[in-house]
Design brief:
This protein has about 130 residues and is mainly beta. It is built from 1 helix and 8 strands. It has one helix spanning about 1-20, and strands at about 40, 50-55, 60-65, 70-75, 90-95, 100-105, 115, 125-130. The strands form 2 sheets. A 4-stranded antiparallel β-sheet has the order 1-2-3-4, with no helix packed on it. Strands 5-6-7-8 form a 4-stranded antiparallel β-sheet, with no helix packed on it. It is globular and about 40 Å long.
Protein backbone atom coordinates (compact mmCIF):
# COMPACT_ATOMS: atom_id res chain seq x y z
CA UNK A 1 0.00 0.00 0.00
CA UNK A 2 2.81 2.39 0.89
CA UNK A 3 4.51 1.66 -2.45
CA UNK A 4 1.25 2.39 -4.35
CA UNK A 5 0.85 5.69 -2.47
CA UNK A 6 4.44 6.67 -3.32
CA UNK A 7 3.97 5.82 -7.02
CA UNK A 8 0.71 7.81 -7.11
CA UNK A 9 2.29 10.89 -5.51
CA UNK A 10 5.30 10.63 -7.84
CA UNK A 11 3.04 10.37 -10.90
CA UNK A 12 0.92 13.36 -9.87
CA UNK A 13 4.01 15.45 -9.16
CA UNK A 14 5.50 14.56 -12.53
CA UNK A 15 2.26 15.41 -14.35
CA UNK A 16 1.98 18.78 -12.60
CA UNK A 17 5.61 19.66 -13.46
CA UNK A 18 5.08 18.93 -17.15
CA UNK A 19 1.72 20.69 -17.16
CA UNK A 20 3.25 24.00 -16.08
CA UNK A 21 2.39 27.00 -18.21
CA UNK A 22 4.81 28.02 -20.93
CA UNK A 23 3.80 31.64 -20.54
CA UNK A 24 7.31 32.70 -19.59
CA UNK A 25 8.93 35.40 -21.72
CA UNK A 26 11.58 34.11 -24.13
CA UNK A 27 15.10 33.92 -22.75
CA UNK A 28 17.21 36.80 -24.03
CA UNK A 29 20.90 36.20 -24.64
CA UNK A 30 21.91 39.85 -24.53
CA UNK A 31 25.30 41.28 -23.71
CA UNK A 32 25.69 44.00 -21.11
CA UNK A 33 27.60 46.18 -23.60
CA UNK A 34 25.77 49.52 -23.45
CA UNK A 35 27.84 51.01 -26.28
CA UNK A 36 25.99 49.22 -29.11
CA UNK A 37 23.50 51.10 -31.26
CA UNK A 38 21.44 48.12 -32.47
CA UNK A 39 20.21 45.01 -30.66
CA UNK A 40 18.14 42.03 -31.79
CA UNK A 41 15.45 40.80 -29.42
CA UNK A 42 14.05 37.29 -29.79
CA UNK A 43 10.30 36.73 -29.87
CA UNK A 44 8.52 33.47 -29.08
CA UNK A 45 8.25 32.95 -32.85
CA UNK A 46 11.49 31.21 -33.81
CA UNK A 47 11.65 33.09 -37.13
CA UNK A 48 11.00 36.62 -35.82
CA UNK A 49 13.19 39.15 -34.03
CA UNK A 50 12.78 42.82 -33.25
CA UNK A 51 15.71 45.07 -34.15
CA UNK A 52 15.96 48.07 -31.84
CA UNK A 53 17.94 51.26 -32.29
CA UNK A 54 19.00 51.71 -28.66
CA UNK A 55 19.78 55.42 -29.22
CA UNK A 56 16.32 56.60 -30.26
CA UNK A 57 13.80 53.74 -29.95
CA UNK A 58 13.20 53.05 -33.65
CA UNK A 59 12.27 49.40 -34.35
CA UNK A 60 11.98 46.87 -37.16
CA UNK A 61 10.42 43.41 -37.32
CA UNK A 62 13.05 41.02 -38.73
CA UNK A 63 12.06 37.61 -40.07
CA UNK A 64 14.42 34.91 -41.28
CA UNK A 65 13.63 31.65 -43.01
CA UNK A 66 14.77 29.09 -45.53
CA UNK A 67 12.39 29.95 -48.36
CA UNK A 68 12.92 32.59 -51.03
CA UNK A 69 10.22 34.91 -49.65
CA UNK A 70 10.54 34.07 -45.94
CA UNK A 71 13.21 36.66 -45.13
CA UNK A 72 12.28 40.31 -44.65
CA UNK A 73 12.63 43.39 -42.47
CA UNK A 74 9.65 45.67 -41.96
CA UNK A 75 9.27 48.89 -40.04
CA UNK A 76 7.60 48.79 -36.63
CA UNK A 77 8.28 52.41 -35.72
CA UNK A 78 10.40 55.05 -37.43
CA UNK A 79 9.57 57.63 -34.75
CA UNK A 80 12.54 58.80 -32.73
CA UNK A 81 11.45 58.84 -29.06
CA UNK A 82 13.98 61.57 -28.17
CA UNK A 83 15.55 64.66 -29.75
CA UNK A 84 18.81 64.09 -31.66
CA UNK A 85 20.88 65.74 -28.92
CA UNK A 86 19.34 63.40 -26.28
CA UNK A 87 20.26 60.18 -28.13
CA UNK A 88 22.58 57.83 -26.21
CA UNK A 89 23.71 54.29 -27.02
CA UNK A 90 21.83 51.86 -24.78
CA UNK A 91 19.12 54.37 -23.83
CA UNK A 92 16.23 52.15 -25.03
CA UNK A 93 15.63 48.50 -24.19
CA UNK A 94 12.90 45.96 -25.01
CA UNK A 95 11.42 43.71 -22.34
CA UNK A 96 9.42 40.64 -23.41
CA UNK A 97 5.97 40.00 -21.96
CA UNK A 98 4.11 36.73 -21.64
CA UNK A 99 2.11 37.67 -24.75
CA UNK A 100 3.90 36.36 -27.85
CA UNK A 101 3.27 39.57 -29.84
CA UNK A 102 4.01 42.22 -27.19
CA UNK A 103 7.09 43.82 -25.67
CA UNK A 104 7.58 46.82 -23.43
CA UNK A 105 9.94 49.50 -24.78
CA UNK A 106 11.60 51.36 -21.91
CA UNK A 107 13.51 54.63 -21.99
CA UNK A 108 16.08 53.74 -19.35
CA UNK A 109 16.96 57.38 -18.71
CA UNK A 110 13.56 59.03 -18.09
CA UNK A 111 11.40 55.94 -17.44
CA UNK A 112 8.84 56.39 -20.22
CA UNK A 113 7.38 53.15 -21.57
CA UNK A 114 5.51 51.96 -24.67
CA UNK A 115 3.64 48.79 -25.59
CA UNK A 116 5.18 47.35 -28.78
CA UNK A 117 3.13 44.86 -30.76
CA UNK A 118 4.59 43.05 -33.76
CA UNK A 119 2.81 40.77 -36.22
CA UNK A 120 0.86 41.22 -39.44
CA UNK A 121 0.85 44.77 -40.83
CA UNK A 122 -2.65 45.54 -39.48
CA UNK A 123 -1.67 44.39 -35.98
CA UNK A 124 1.60 46.31 -35.54
CA UNK A 125 1.58 49.21 -33.11
CA UNK A 126 3.59 51.20 -30.59
CA UNK A 127 1.50 53.00 -27.96
CA UNK A 128 2.61 54.94 -24.89
CA UNK A 129 1.95 53.50 -21.44
CA UNK A 130 0.97 56.27 -19.02
Amino acid sequence: MRKLLFVSIFALTTISVFAQSTSEPPHQNISTDSTVVYRLFATKNIYTFIKLNTRNGQMWQIQWGTGKYDTFATLLSDISRVNKEEERNGRFFLYPTTNIYNFILLDQIDGRAWQVQWGDKKDRMVIPIY
